[in-house]
Design goal:
With 399 residues, the protein is α+β, with helices and mostly antiparallel strands. It has eleven helices and 20 strands. The longest helix is centred in the last third of the chain and has 35 residues. The radius of gyration is 22 Å and the shape is globular. The structure holds FE2/S2 (inorganic) cluster (FES) and fe (ii) ion. The site of FE2/S2 (inorganic) cluster has 9 residues, from loops.
């Protein structure tokens, strides 16, 4: 059975028994863990500054000179496809005196030109132009600082530590096989980015990992067709795949009356610590990057829409309409809600928040973060937080 058929079978089972895949126990966490600046520093240092981050999809920069640039955890990045076809990730920091060498979130450039004094870099990051070069003596063969990176399953991973190493096999722990099924290389990015402000990054991450809220918070928008709280959850090391059932899945019969996957289910791959890939097994996909800001109370989401076909003709209008729809949903439903939570953290004081057994991905996130910030970077792959108490995964674990 294909991966998608198996997920459909599990979702149908969960709908039939009236439960999602479940964690063993509910879990409490101190509300103060969100707003604690020391914890935030540890999260940036032990997680964002050292693990392989999914910095882009290769299809976001399809042609030489295409780049995408954004700040994450206090570092400006630029991911650019070189004239040699190789995708590289650099610190977006000029080697003269530190200005950014890009002037947009995405663009195409033959040269990256620093606006301050016009030092310029080619698409492989090499410094190729210095006005008044005689005043600088011997500069040597320098370039933008390149970060270790590797492309896997159509996704570009990089570490923010220029001296770090990438071990994607260990890090992805099988997630790449699930991403392979999405055929990410076939997508075309609608290269109009959307930025949405959010408060604390973990409050925003909680939303991306939450299969429980879809039919409630989003009941009049993207959740109108969902059968809420019947999700499948699968863990790949620190990463999570969430399956969502849509109305009509119970009428699907794989043999007698098959329905297209896109009508009866959807998937979210959450690539730890900060990227949500929503959809992908049919014609569209939305990539949301959650970008922690300079302080514990600030983050931003950077979203792109993708299509299986080239985005031209009527599809441009459709893509723009969809971009605005999702911008409104995330801003007015998700982020408005989590801003309220962020504003209430002080009032909650030393109280706790609770994650039910039906919120295993959130439990997994917070447990993983706790392990990393305690310095246990080797522990994540041993985690098995979910015990399949219901749904087809119970049958799976017995099989
Ligand atoms: S800071 Fe870039 S050219 Fe001076
Ligand atoms: Fe949401």
């Amino acid at each position: 059975m294909s991966m998608l058929d198996e997920l459909v079978a599990r979702l149908r089972h969960n709908v039939a028994v009236g439960l999602p895949d479940q964690a063993e126990q509910p879990m409490k966490i101190p509300a103060s863990s969100y707003g604690d600046p020391d914890r935030f520093d540890a999260e940036m240092r032990e997680i964002f500054a050292r693990v392989p981050l999914l910095v882009a999809l290769a299809c976001e920069v399809p042609n030489p000179g295409d780049y995408i640039a954004y700040d994450i955890a206090g570092r400006p990045l630029v991911v650019i496809r070189g004239d040699d076809g190789v995708v590289r990730t650099f610190l977006d920091i000029c080697r003269h005196r530190g200005a950014k060498v890009t002037d947009a979130t995405c663009g195409t450039a033959r040269r990256l030109m620093c606006p301050y004094h016009s030092w310029s870099y080619d698409t492989t990051g090499k410094l190729v132009g210095v006005p008044g070069q005689d005043s600088f003596g011997e500069i040597g063969a320098i370039g933008l600082v390149e970060l270790p990176s590797e492309v896997r399953a159509g996704a570009v991973f990089a570490t923010l530590d220029a001296d770090g190493e990438i071990d994607l096999d260990g890090w992805l722990d099988g997630l790449d096989e699930s991403l392979d099924a999405l055929r990410l290389d076939e997508f075309h990015a609608y290269r109009t980015p959307t930025y949405i402000d959010s408060p604390n990054w973990k409050l925003a991450a909680d939303g991306y990992l939450d299969g429980y809220h879809i039919g409630y918070l989003h009941r009049n928008s993207i959740g109108a067709r969902a059968i809420t709280n019947r999700n499948t959850y699968d863990f790949f090391g620190p990463h999570v795949r969430i399956g969502f059932a849509a109305k009509g899945i119970d009428e699907h019969d794989p043999v007698e009356s098959p329905k297209p996957y896109g009508e009866i289910m959807s998937l979210v791959h959450y690539v730890f610590p900060n990227v949500s890939i929503s959809g992908g097994h049919h014609d569209t996909l939305m990539l949301s990057r959650l970008l922690p800001g300079p302080t514990v109370g600030e983050s931003r989401t950077l979203q792109f829409q993708f299509y299986r076909q080239p985005i031209e003709g009527d599809l441009v209008e459709q893509a723009e309409a969809k971009r605005r729809t999702y911008e409104a949903v995330v801003r007015d439903e998700d982020c408005a809600t989590i801003f309220d939570i962020g504003n209430a953290l002080d009032a909650v004081g030393d109280g706790h928040f609770v994650f039910g057994r039906n919120e295993p991905a959130n439990q997994h996130l917070h447990t993983t973060i706790e392990q990393f910030t305690n310095g246990e970077h080797h522990r994540w792959s041993d985690q098995s937080l979910v015990t399949a108490q219901s749904g087809a995964s119970a049958a799976r674990s017995e099989a």
